[in-house]
What does this fold into?
Amino acid sequence: MASISRPAAPDLKKEKPPLTKRFAHALSRDYQLWLLLLPTIAFFIVFHYLPLYGIQIAFKDYKAVQGITGSKWVGLKHFKIFFDSYYSGRLIINTLLLNLYNLVWGFPIPLIMAILLNQFRSERFKRFAQTTIYAPHFISTVVMAGILYLFLSPNNGVVNTFIKTLGGTPIFFMNEASWFRKIFIITEIWQHSGWSSILFIATLTGIDQEIYEAATIDGASKMQKIRHIDIPHLIPITVIMLILNCGRLLSSNTTKALVMQQPGNIPTSDIIGVYVYTQGLGKAQFSYTSAIGLTVNVVNFFMIITVNWISKKLGDTSLF
Amino acid sequence: MSISRVNMAQKKGRKKEEGFRKINGDTVFDIVNWIIWVIILVLILYPLWLIIIASVSDPEAILEGKVLFVPINFSLIGYKAVFKHPELMRSYANSIFYTLTGTALSVVVTMMGAYALSRQFAGRKVVNFLLVFTMFFSGGLIPQFLVNRALGIYNNIWVMILMNAISVWNLMVARTYISTNIPYELYEAAVMDGATHFIFFTKCVMPLSGTIIAVLAVYYGVARWNDYFTGLVYIRNRDLLPLQTVLRELVAQLNSQAQASFFEAYEDGQSIVDAIRKAEVAKYCSIVVSTVPAIILYIFMQNYFEKGVMIGSLKG
It folds into this structure.
């Protein structure tokens, strides 16, 4: 059969035939692979590369009638408006702080959980604990927010009922700017720290048991084993995860911040992603918000590239 | 007694002491560790338990803050309201449809693409790069919205099925799985027997990839079931809304007036205050009803979820 292709076609050709011929040959050999890839390629063109082409509206005054290509070029107008506005500073600070606090509080917990869980001998308990700590990861953002609105309700939420029985005054948690980040981060930890510990748990399970046995014979205590065996083994993966997280400091968890946003907490809950959604789709400021989105994407892109370069330098692990 | 004996006795004594101290330290550690884990597990399970018991309790008892450990005045009034709420039920059916069809499509297309990318062919590296690039740079919400609207993928079921149909991450996980788990010798043998890529893919790769297919199905399935944003941005026709988008309006708002719709419409002659109070319990019920599918899937497919993380962490 002519169409059978061979992986890693050896490059044994002595003289190269013309390009068109080689192309036709490669296509006749690999056409089935290309057909298998076709839906994937089509999907990425429609949902990823056409929007990339659509970014040009950030430099235009988008009018629905004129369309993406037909609208008038206005250069950097929208970028200037954004950076001159009162909002730019607040949005950037809100986004950065939310991510930074989330990293500081949320990052160590999966690590600690993995180390502590690894100390248990009983496989059944480990299994049970793992099943439990992963479960909240499967709760949707909307349900998570729904739980918050119910539990934190100022009138009859569990938390405020408790505060009232202690003699305190109820707090309107979901509508107060000073509470937004705390609630956001606590629920992030509650939902995802178990799930994030999987990689660390796997790393610890992979450690050679003989090392522990040798340490036991030498009289090492559990704390000493953690310090001298577990932690050194966890350092490489921890560094990589930490660096990767640093590359996302300006990205937005739009879906969650959006469901938690209320008039009262806007001073802290207004992060870039939410602002782009509310101004762009809510108020049809398409070009202006595209410019904001593009700025953030460019910054994020270079942060990830830098971070990846750093992790490549530090160890031999990198994303790409 | 010779000196050496004395030394040995001393050594033995010291060893005993050390051993005693060591066991002691470890015991303290174990106790503290147990206490920490009891706290962690309670912190995770108690809110979930609270939602379940509140969903089957009497609305009055919930409002008075009495429902803390067990259901009070068992009542299914909330569930009745949920199952009688036409919009919630329609969106529930919509979500089942979107999740099943969308996940099937995602899994098949991802497997096809992953198989192709696991082979060597001219242009593979370029395709690979262009796919991975989209993980790090995207057009953003607004250009994507405008392009989709221009293409007519707006306010219809196609947007719900096609949006986020393929994740690069899942594609790379599947590719890694295929290239490490399907031996190359098998392909060579199949070629000897006259198999093409199509035949090899359908007759060998798919049947041998049960694990990764399950992993993909649970990842795509849960992501689709839990997604409210696509519905929020792209669906205007309320008959097409997915569950999570409708749920957001009912449970994730401060305005309890809107939530009173749980009862208002179905029980005539009842006051708005009463409706709002009862709606409180219906919110708990809708949370339970909407989360149960994802949690059940998780419990049954637990091993596959973890495997997905492991395969993903291998450098492909």
In short: Residues 1-5 of chain A have pLDDT under 50 and may be disordered. Chain A has 16 helices and two strands.
